[in-house]
Amino acid sequence: MIRIIALILLITSSLSFAQSPNAIVHRAKIFYNSSQDFERLIEAGIPVDHGFHKKNTYFESDFSEAEISEIQQLGFSIEKTIEDVGSFYLNQNDPMHKDYVGPNQLRNASCSGGAEDYQTPANFNVWPASNFGGYYTYSQVLQELDDMANLYPNLITAKADISNFVTNGTPNNATSPPIGGNKIQWVKISDNPGSSEAEPQILYTSIHHAREPASLSQLIFFMWYLLENYDSDPEVQAIVNNTELYFIPVINPDGYLHNEFTNPNGGGTWRKNRWNTTGVDNNRNYDYYINGNPANGTWSGPGSSSNPGSSVYHGPAPFSEAENQAVKWFVEQHDFVMALNNHTFGELLYYPFGYADVATPDDNLYQAFTAELVSRNGYNALRDEPFSGDSDDFMYGTVGTHSKIFAMTPEVGTSFWPAQSSIDGICKEMMYLNLTAANMVNNYATITDESDVFIENTSDIASYSIKRLGLPDPANFSVSITPISSNILSVGGSNSHNNLSYAQIVQGNIALNLDPNINPGDQVSYELIVNNGSFDKSVTINRIFGQPTVLFSDMADNLNANWSSSNWDTTTEDFVSASTSFTDSPFSNYSNNANSVMTLTNAIDLTGATVANVSFQAKWDIEGSFDYVQFEISTNNGSSWIPQCGKYTKEGGSN
User: Fold this and answer.
1) Exposed/middle/buried for 162, CB within 10 Å: 0-12, 13-18, 19+?
2) pTM across the whole model
3) Distances (CA, A) of 425 to 116, 229, 414, 434, 500
4) CB atoms within 10 A of CB 327
5) How do residues 494-552 score in pLDDT, each as one tens digit?
6) I need a surface site. Which of 190, 324, 485, 512 has the fewest CB within 10 A?
């Protein structure tokens, strides 16, 4: 196996002490040693909700001079990794500058199952870098919603105000529309958008925080994808026909417009709304009543600040802000089952509770469905850090006026302002998460192939497992096979799996009968299908007929026997077959900026082989975003290497 640890972590978050438009913001690592140290940062009102976090080692994000001074006064050491992120955010889009960030391709382009599988909608825009860093301005968002309604009036409502709530930001007529006096807009996508049907409802939001445009772009991408693929994609059609999908694309228009005003080319670092110029953090202005007791609210608790100059200022009272009042009212008028409150950044998926390190009564459910939601993009799913007054706690817990909502916060991408070249890829890596969340509010199960790769006899079985992940009851499914290759003569009947409990996994088999004239090495292909009563979810399975010959096997007990490496070794820390495994970092963390490679010493001769298969057990825990693991092969004695289509080739994450 080859493991490559690539360069640097790009990370961001911010605290604002009466931040001026020209204030320099730094990217910096805060070093700490324990959870108690991290709690001190939270209690001091340092915004550590967005960024990259190496537990008990460091947190890295964007911080102003005032924030860095505050952090140092608390006794923490820091390391500035980018001196001026405002300049960096501009330079990253300039191909002639040393900070230019181009497209990053880690997967073999021929691999399936990645973000590349989703086609960019024809109407989606990645704007020129001079246009807000490639992102949508607020006026462009409003136009986009109008365009959607004009092109697809039978699938989406015209944009509408959330009641009569109006933002109260300090007026500024230099933007279009002006700052202050803005309504909060919403739309609904469904097969009968103008009607209220007895269908599960899901809510998608973005721009609680003004400096997070990638969270908005991926949402616009998703909306266009639903609309443009409704007639051609059975999964999209099933979602839209059986679900009411609500969208609030910009919760904080005043703050977003302020960043347009100060940084029209992108890179603005303003986080809050524009109340009284200093602003309130809209994601600290909610409340949650512990155990339903209004006398035991969580507003103004850890992770927020009473200082109006702080970027996590919670406001003068819970729901004091028009933006939060609008969301509260909107939630109370609907019956949402699930909500995705999108933010940037950190490649994370947060779920409640956030007010303290406390699990919800539904923690097992949260763990099960968040694990599936991030299974394609490699994000890490975890409970919120202690941040009081956030949207997820409010939506999950009741305040006596709405039912429980399974709310979550995706932290999209690798910085507040990812490079223009990264926008399309970021949008695509969120697609499976967005689609699967909509599936989960309906009857839904995943299906996994459990068969051997090789088929040795013409009478065989297809083995599978299904896992219930949809929220409603009853959870009834059927599983069947549809042949693809002509060498399948017949298949067994479908299997029924009824009344599954949540996250229950059941296994099954279906007979396969192959052509007796099939040749060794021939591919046997079929679709494994799970039906939920309204939609067939299929997985294409490709297997090989013939008896395999093992050409190489290694029990990972002696590195030097078959491998060459400068720094890999055996370890007893963890293993599959006793008593060792191979590791690049025995009994320690791997070093910074490492390129760690283990190479098979002798080539494997595949002359005469019609197909070849390699499998191995592996696990890793690497730093988010820019570190990665690859398995590569060479067909020219190591002159060049080709990354293979592994299941887990994704920047950052653990397995």
Assistant:
1) buried
2) 0.90
3) 8, 19, 12, 14, 36
4) 29
5) 999 999 999 999 999 999 999 999 999 999 999 999 999 999 999 999 999 999 888 89
6) 485
